[in-house]
Amino acid sequence: MHASTYELLKTRQKNMQIPYEVIAKQSELGIATVKRFFSGANSSMATVEKIASVLACDIHISARSTAEKLLEEQIERKAKLVVDRVMKTSALEAQKPHSAAYAQMLQRAKDKISKMTKTQIWS
Question: Fewest beta carbons within 10 Å, which of 26, 28, 49, 50?
Answer without folding.
Answer: 28
